[in-house]
C-alpha cells in the first residue's frame, strides 16, 4: 500500500464531482474518484488514504446504505464525510447512517471554505489513527492481537525492539489478559534465534512430580515407565526461545534447576549424569509481584535477579482507552466469519461505553465479549447490552483531568497542523504559542509532521 500524501477518496456522481474536484485540487488535495463501492474498495486497498467523501441521496436503497456502512466499518481508520443535497430533506435511514458512521456531513452545493475546513479537520483526526497505530494484517500470525496507537503500547513496541537484539533473559510482567505471550512471541520473532523453535511452558500447569522431567527430559530407565529417552522443553527449544509462563508458580524446591541452567547453560536429564549444553533464549512472564514473592520466601532471590535482567510490562487495557475502538474493530473483522449476518459493527454509544469500562480481564475479556455479541446481537449495530456490560455497574474507569487535558491538547495541535498544512510557524500563531513550545508539545505527543 502506497502513501499519497494529502489524498482522499470521493464516491459519487460526476455532476457533483466537478466543482468538488476543482475546489480540492486547487488546495493541494489529491482526489481518487470512484463511482461505486467495488471501485472504492479497490482504491483503498492500493492507496493509504485518510479521508473519504461519499455522496448520499434519498434515492439510495436500504441495501446500498447497508453496504456503505459495512465498508466504513472495514476502513475504520479513515474519517468519512457525507455529502448531502439537503439537510432538511434527509429521511430517517440517511440520518441514522450519518449519525452512526460519518464523522461529519457537508450540504451541497459545495461551499469551498466550509468543505476545506471539514476535510482538514478529518485529515488531522485520521492521521492520529494512521501515523502511530499498529494494525497487523491477516498474515502477521502470532502478533495479530498487538494492536494499538496509545503511548503505552508504542512504548512497549519500542522496548520489544530494544530487548530482541540481545540474548539476556527477559521478564514480562502484567495483569492476566494483557498479552504477555504475544509480547514474548514478538521478542522471539525479532531476535537472532527467530528461525529456531518457540516453546511455551505454563509453569503452573505442570504437576509437581513431573516438573523436572518435563523441563529437562529423562533417560531411558530413569523411572518405571521410562521406556525410551525423552527430550525436555529446554532441549526442544535449542537454538530458539523458551517462554516460561507464570514462572512465579514454580515450586521453591524446583527453582534450583532453573537457576543452575541460567548460571551454567547446561541441563541434566532425569536419570542421567551428562551435562548437556543448550543454546536457548529465556523469556519468562508472571502476573504476580515477584519482589513480594522473594520477601515471603516463595521465590529464590538469586533466581529472581537472574530472570529479571530485562523487564517489560504489558499495560492493562484501562490504561490505554484510546486503543479500545481500534481493538474492537480489529477483532470484529478478525471474527467476522462467526457473526450474525445482520450485524455490521458497533453503535457509537457502545464504543463510548467500551472506552469507559474498566476491562478487568483486559484484552482477553474484550475478545470474549465481542465474539459473544457478534453471534447473539439481533440488530445491525452491537450495543453495550449485547456485550453484557451493565452501565449501572461499578466496573468503569473514568478519565482523569490530566488524561482529558492531554487528549484535548493533542487533538488541538493535530487540527491546527492540518489546517495550516503542517506549517509550524502558522500553527504556532494559530495556537498562540511560541515555535519552541509547539515543537516541545509535538515531541511530547509523538506527532509526525513530516508527512
Automatic annotation (TrEMBL):
Pfam families, per database record: AAA_lid_14, HTH_8, Sigma54_activat, VpsR
Keyword Chloroplast among UniProt keywords: no
Keywords carried by this UniProt record: ATP-binding, Nucleotide-binding, Transcription, Transcription regulation
GO molecular function, one term: sequence-specific DNA binding
Organism: Methylophaga thiooxydans
Name assigned to this protein: Response regulatory protein
GO biological process, one term: regulation of DNA-templated transcription
Location of the Sigma-54 factor interaction domain: 146-375
InterPro entries in UniProt: AAA+_ATPase (IPR003593), AAA_lid_NorR (IPR058031), CheY-like_superfamily (IPR011006), Homeodomain-like_sf (IPR009057), HTH_Fis (IPR002197), P-loop_NTPase (IPR027417), Sigma_54_int (IPR002078), Sigma_54_int_dom_ATP-bd_2 (IPR025943)
Coiled coil: none
Amino acid at each position: 500500500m502506497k502513501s499519497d500524501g494529502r489524498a482522499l477518496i470521493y464516491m459519487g456522481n460526476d455532476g457533483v464531482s466537478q466543482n468538488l474536484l476543482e475546489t480540492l485540487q486547487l488546495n493541494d488535495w489529491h482526489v481518487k474518484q470512484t463511482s461505486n463501492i467495488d471501485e472504492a474498495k479497490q482504491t483503498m486497498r492500493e492507496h493509504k488514504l485518510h479521508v473519504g467523501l461519499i455522496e448520499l441521496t434519498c434515492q439510495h436503497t436500504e441495501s446500498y446504505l447497508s453496504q456503505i456502512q459495512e465498508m466504513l466499518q472495514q476502513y475504520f481508520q479513515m474519517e468519512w464525510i457525507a455529502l448531502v443535497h439537503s439537510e432538511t430533506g434527509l429521511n430517517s435511514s440517511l440520518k441514522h447512517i450519518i449519525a452512526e458512521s460519518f464523522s461529519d456531513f457537508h450540504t451541497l452545493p459545495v461551499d469551498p471554505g466550509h468543505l476545506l475546513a471539514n476535510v482538514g479537520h478529518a485529515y488531522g483526526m485520521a492521521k492520529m489513527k494512521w501515523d502511530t497505530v499498529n494494525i497487523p494484517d491477516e498474515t502477521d500470525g502470532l502478533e495479530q492481537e498487538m494492536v494499538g496507537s496509545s503511548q503505552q503500547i508504542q512504548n512497549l513496541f519500542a522496548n520489544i525492539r530494544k530487548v530482541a537484539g540481545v540474548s539476556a533473559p527477559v521478564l514480562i510482567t502484567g495483569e492476566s489478559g494483557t498479552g504477555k505471550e504475544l509480547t514474548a512471541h514478538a521478542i522471539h520473532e525479532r531476535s537472532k534465534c527467530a528461525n529456531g523453535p518457540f516453546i511455551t511452558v505454563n509453569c503452573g500447569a505442570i504437576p509437581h512430580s513431573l516438573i523436572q522431567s518435563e523441563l529437562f527430559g529423562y533417560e531411558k530407565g530413569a523411572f518405571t515407565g521410562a521406556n525410551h529417552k525423552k527430550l525436555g522443553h529446554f532441549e526442544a527449544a535449542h537454538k530458539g526461545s523458551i517462554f516460561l509462563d507464570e514462572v512465579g508458580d514454580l515450586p521453591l524446591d524446583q527453582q534450583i534447576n532453573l537457576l543452575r541452567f541460567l548460571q551454567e547453560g547446561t541441563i541434566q536429564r532425569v536419570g542421567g549424569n551428562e551435562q548437556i549444553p543448550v543454546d536457548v533464549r529465556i523469556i519468562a512472564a508472571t502476573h504476580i509481584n515477584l519482589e513480594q514473592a522473594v520477601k515471603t520466601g516463595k521465590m529464590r532471590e538469586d533466581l529472581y535477579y537472574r530472570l529479571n535482567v530485562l523487564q517489560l510490562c504489558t499495560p492493562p487495557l484501562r490504561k490505554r482507552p484510546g486503543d479500545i475502538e481500534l481493538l474492537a474493530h480489529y477483532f470484529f473483522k478478525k471474527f467476522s466469519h462467526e457473526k450474525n449476518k445482520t450485524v455490521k459493527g458497533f453503535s457509537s454509544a457502545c464504543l463510548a461505553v467500551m472506552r469507559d469500562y474498566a476491562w478487568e480481564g483486559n484484552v482477553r475479556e474484550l475478545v470474549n465479549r465481542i465474539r459473544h455479541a457478534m453471534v447473539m446481537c439481533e440488530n445491525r449495530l452491537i450495543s453495550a447490552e449485547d456485550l453484557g456490560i451493565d452501565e449501572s455497574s461499578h466496573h468503569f474507569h473514568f478519565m482523569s483531568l490530566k488524561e482529558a487535558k492531554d487528549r484535548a491538547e493533542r487533538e488541538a495541535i493535530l487540527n491546527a497542523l492540518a489546517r495550516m498544512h503542517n506549517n509550524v510557524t502558522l500553527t504556532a500563531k494559530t495556537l498562540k504559542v511560541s515555535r519552541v513550545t509547539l515543537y516541545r508539545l509535538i515531541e511530547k505527543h509523538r506527532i509526525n509532521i513530516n508527512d
